[in-house]
Amino acid sequence: MTSNPYTEAGVDTAAGDLAVELMKSAVRRTHGPEVLGGVGGFAGLFDASTLRSYGRPLLATSTDGVGTKVAIAQAIDKHDTIGLDLVGMVVDDIVVVGAKPLFMTDYIACGKVYPERIADIVRGIARGCAETGTALVGGETAEHPGLLGLNDYDVAGAATGVVEASRILGAERVGDGDVVLALASSGLHSNGYSLVRHIVARGGIQYAHTAEDFGTTWGETLLEPTRLYTSPLLRLIAQLGDSARGPFSAVHSLSHVTGGGIAANLARVLPQGSWVEVERSTWSPPPVFRVLADLGDLSLESTEGTWNLGIGFLAVVDAQKADAAISALAQDGIAAWQVGVVHTGTRPAGEFEQGAKGVDGGAVRLVGTYGDSAAPDHGAK
């Protein structure tokens, strides 16, 4: 039998084929009639004629990864939730403008293809896509021996969605007196894990150790998957109906709280000249943040630019519809509460964060003291 020089170089194409076979059924479950060609083509096909019902369809796109959270998955050999994190980081950016996700592709780079591991990752991606109404139309698994360790991998993805031009959400919709609502996170989501890993390593903790504060291992606690907001938010946008100020929802802008924290991400979706003071006393950061901060000898305030501290999304809504929004989100299993009000008048003295990531938006700062840890924990709901 002739040897395969590519296999001898460390690339196992047969293992890659097996991984595809193991994941195919999960991927197919995300396909509706708009997806053509099935699994395994050079390119994924999506029937764009489904967009004919739009007057002026705008395509929205986003790409992201999961970051160093994958190192914890690798450390405890648990890979079935990382895909949910990837979908959350990519697709939940699209809903910020009010767009409905259409399709997504993924990319996995690894040192060695272990078929069941790759299939676990992709099954998680497919589960997240199914929960958000997104078709998983393609992907790539690349084996990089010599560049990545045998058990190392990284994941990334890209998605495309659509929104009617007259219904797009953003800072231009926001006005004086609008209310800022916080939507509870499920935990750390997928940001700030370099700090998490630094704290855990410095504390001499192994991810397999039981975390007495949580009743699980440290690894399982830290791998709590990112909450997916897309479907509940799309339902909320539709349910609140038209605002008195124009043909769009009473949800005026949305912010995904990822890298940069609460203030910086909210500032990106506020108009120039506006400002918001986010009142810390309105919520109690969940235990995972408090325990990590204590272990790292940090104040919660010092981590505000790194962790979400219990707020995964922010919604700026018409004040008259705020209670209705909170109620609707609760019915979808997401705790929400008011944290601030948008102002366009003279800004108080003191430091504010103004815009972020190249966006010259509004100004935001967090004020007050966090609610007591014994108080109701929004992030736990």
UniProtKB/TrEMBL annotation:
<feature type="domain" description="PurM-like C-terminal">
    <location>
        <begin position="176"/>
        <end position="347"/>
    </location>
</feature>
<keyword id="KW-0547">Nucleotide-binding</keyword>
<comment type="pathway">
    <text>Purine metabolism; IMP biosynthesis via de novo pathway; 5-amino-1-(5-phospho-D-ribosyl)imidazole from N(2)-formyl-N(1)-(5-phospho-D-ribosyl)glycinamide: step 2/2.</text>
</comment>
<dbReference type="GO" id="GO:0006189">
    <property type="term" value="P:'de novo' IMP biosynthetic process"/>
</dbReference>
<dbReference type="InterPro" id="IPR010918">
    <property type="entry name" value="PurM-like_C_dom"/>
</dbReference>
<feature type="domain" description="PurM-like N-terminal">
    <location>
        <begin position="49"/>
        <end position="163"/>
    </location>
</feature>
<dbReference type="InterPro" id="IPR004733">
    <property type="entry name" value="PurM_cligase"/>
</dbReference>
<dbReference type="InterPro" id="IPR016188">
    <property type="entry name" value="PurM-like_N"/>
</dbReference>
<dbReference type="GO" id="GO:0004637">
    <property type="term" value="F:phosphoribosylamine-glycine ligase activity"/>
</dbReference>
<dbReference type="GO" id="GO:0004641">
    <property type="term" value="F:phosphoribosylformylglycinamidine cyclo-ligase activity"/>
</dbReference>
<protein>
    <recommendedName>
        <fullName>Phosphoribosylformylglycinamidine cyclo-ligase</fullName>
        <ecNumber>6.3.3.1</ecNumber>
    </recommendedName>
</protein>
<dbReference type="GO" id="GO:0046084">
    <property type="term" value="P:adenine biosynthetic process"/>
</dbReference>
<keyword id="KW-0067">ATP-binding</keyword>
<keyword id="KW-0658">Purine biosynthesis</keyword>
<dbReference type="Pfam" id="PF00586">
    <property type="entry name" value="AIRS"/>
</dbReference>
<keyword id="KW-0436">Ligase</keyword>
<dbReference type="InterPro" id="IPR036921">
    <property type="entry name" value="PurM-like_N_sf"/>
</dbReference>
<keyword id="KW-0963">Cytoplasm</keyword>
<dbReference type="Pfam" id="PF02769">
    <property type="entry name" value="AIRS_C"/>
</dbReference>
<comment type="similarity">
    <text>Belongs to the AIR synthase family.</text>
</comment>
<dbReference type="GO" id="GO:0005524">
    <property type="term" value="F:ATP binding"/>
</dbReference>
<dbReference type="GO" id="GO:0005829">
    <property type="term" value="C:cytosol"/>
</dbReference>
<dbReference type="InterPro" id="IPR036676">
    <property type="entry name" value="PurM-like_C_sf"/>
</dbReference>
